[in-house]
Amino acid sequence: MMIRKDGERGHSLALIVLAVAGIWLGGGPVAFAQVEEPVPTDDPHPAEVEQPETPRAELGKDEAPTTMVVIGEDEGGLVEAYTIEFGDEKDWVRLASGEWLRGNIERMRDGSMEFNSDEIKLITYDWKKVRELHSPRANTYNFTDGTDLVGPAMINEEFVVVQTVDGIVTRPRVELQAIIEHMRRERNYWSTVLRLGLTGNAGNTENLTFNAFWQLVREDTLTRAALSYDGTFGKASRAEVANRHLAGGDVDIFVHPIVYVKALTGQLLYDKFQNIRLRATPAAGVGFHLITTYVVNWDLEFAPAGYQYLSLLDPAAGVENPQSDGYMMFRMFADIDFTDDIQLLLEWRTNVVYTTIGNTNHVGSLDFTVRVTTLLHLNTSFLYLRTEDPFPRADGTVPKKNDYQIVFGVSLRIG
Description:
By secondary structure, the protein is mainly β. Helix content is 4%, strand content 61%.
């Protein structure tokens, strides 16, 4: 490492680098530093100066990767150029236990890191329990002020050091909000889930019910967009007993580690046996990360002014059809990871229709998942729908307020 004695900028930056290197080496002092006088830039035949061997830090006891930091000089002799080299093409993570993991980091957000290893497959860790991360790949690192850094990086308990195309950049670790795998390739931002469930009986009673659930998500460092569909078809003794389609959509913009903007949220519902041809509920609002831990992530969302459109299939005489109303949306979402393979998702949404209070409706869901392989999961899901005051049909019958559904199925997850 070469350090000028003159020049405050070069000297102070070198001290910072030495301090960071000391942390990477386990908190102790740097074992190597050399001070040399710079070669005068006006010498027409400058003497060749032998470059000292760059300090190398062995980062683990179980053949962890070797990390090298090379410091160069600009034309004025001031320290500004960095190079980070790795002895391995894989990502390396050191946990609080001191254990090193070798594999690929999939992403980090909301206090959780997804890490994929050839031996232990895809697992999730509490980001607070990750002491160091060394990645030779060009990942995207997003910070709380909305800026991104792209490149190979080293992270310890205090700093995030990224080798960008413009040189090294050091930021406090507390400002790191998310990590997205690799550089900005579009396919890395997408994921999808397809779940299928089927129940049937034959003999004294004949019935068959089919359920399909599909979700598509695009998530980058600043936004998350999701589309979902839940459809149920059922017959008993050859008569239709279920025909419901529920679609949802959300667009979130992450502006703070705790607060995010709901640029768009809403649902579309068709339910033949609730006498609903179409219920559309677009809205915009704000969301809050109330709890973000390794085990539990709990969000609360609020939309103060939404619009509800309701069209009935077969309304009774005198019932206005269609109807337009204003509503407020309250939504709670919780993600509970009991283990790396067992997950519980809880969601509750209430639309308070303040212009026609009887149109107030609720949707609740529960999804219990057990991972069998990286792609294949077993699911038990529960869906609850309620309308406070259903409208009567033309024949005078009134739909029940509550609908319940439980589905046992398998799901395929990609991304």
